[in-house]
Amino acid sequence: MVSIKSAAANAGVGSPSPCKEKGGSKMKPMKILLFGMMLFLVSNLVPATSYAAALGDMHLRFLEGDVQVKTADTGEWVPASINMPLIAGDAVWVPEGGRAGVQQMDGTVVRLDENTSLEILNMTNDTSQFYLSLGRAYVNFRGRPGTLMQMDTPVSSTRAFERAKFRVDVAEDGFTGVSVFKGNVVTEGGGGKTRVTAGNILTLGAETYAELSPLGPADDWEQWNMEMDRKLERRYSSRYLPTELDVYSADFDEYGRWVNVPEYGYVWTPTVVVGAGWAPYSQGRWTWIGGEYVWVSYDPWGWAPYHYGRWGFVASIGWCWVPPVRGGVYWGPGFVGWVSTGDYVAWVPLAPGEIYYGYGYYGPHSVNITNININTVHVTNVYRNAHVNNGIIVVNKNTFITGRHAAVDPSVVARVRQDFISRKVTIGRPACNK
């Protein structure tokens, strides 16, 4: 497993878009050899990946340390980022001193301790499957009835069919421990299947029978996870959210407040690390994932408000997030309107009721342009947020591709604002000009 850690540290950072330039940084021969060895080991130790997950099914919720992700799109190790979507085929490496947590759409959370390697094998509406080759993973499975969570290791496969809290520990030789704190799981190894109930631990190796025994005192890793679980139980914001978004209540509780405004009813506005010049979709980057530009926010609360609902501007409170109506909850890569010119790319947050043009169906007030001649689409509305002073974000096209945005001359912003107001907008995401 040392080769996995080395590859994560040595591999170059992948491009966030399909416009990946040639002639980039190259690895030295020894690094190429180490990287090749890592790929060989992974291909022989990790089960074959099943069907790819839909964008939005899982994201990185918590990061600490120099966590790395090997993306299914490129096969390259890149630095992990908070709110980064994950899909089947992605792998996560947590180095010494680090920790990470991923969250599924149903609220299930998988947290990883230092020196841990995890691969996402499968994500569907009713099944999630992972491969833990080394380290410690804590699972708070909150799936609906009829769903399945599976955590595989080199010597075992553990399945949860109903809500449960458990951890899986894997040593360098593959020796595995499965500890259950709530509910029950079924673990299968070389000696057959064993049901592990709350308060017990099952230990097993490649050539040994499974041994079931009572749990010992909680260690630091278990205590930390229990405290993290308690934070998830906050539910104040759930009264304002549609049921599908209730799993994100803790984020809304911690980082903002709810205000009742005449225009939209109850809206949420962030109260943490928001300056006078802040605007939605300004602190983060667009990343090419799974065939789509997806907004990856740098804000700790920046998953649900940027992938569901719309943003409005109210004079009395400033920018506010308007949740989707009950029954109209659809994930989106980032609900914005675009303007793309020869030199610049610009976007503006969509207000409630404004049309999102995307390559797929993203709910009410969206148009699927996958099989449409975009030259025949005519935008008839003026984006309301284009009139807000800081509502339009403009970046140089080159910095848009790299994700490293630089300041743009105010006169350029003024010209782009006029494009939005005069409806000279880009239908769908920006084109890739190599």
Describe it for me?
This protein is of the alpha+beta class and 434 residues long. It contains seven helices and 27 strands. The strands form six sheets. The protein has a 16-stranded mixed beta sheet that branches. The longest helix has 17 residues, at 29-45. The chain is elongated, with a radius of gyration of 23 Å.
Name the features.
alpha+beta, 7 helices, about 425 residues, elongated, 27 strands
Quick structural summary:
This protein has helices at residues 2-10, 29-45, 220-232, 249-255, 304-307, 397-402, 410-421; strands at 58-64, 68-70, 77-79, 91-94, 99-104, 109-112, 116-123, 127-141, 148-152, 157-160, 164-170, 176-182, 184-189, 192-197, 200-204, 211-214, 256-261, 265-270, 284-289, 292-297, 310-314, 318-322, 336-340, 344-349, 356-358, 366-368, 393-396. It is an alpha+beta fold and 434 residues long. It has a 16-stranded mixed β-sheet that branches. It has a three-stranded antiparallel β-sheet with strand order 23-24-27.
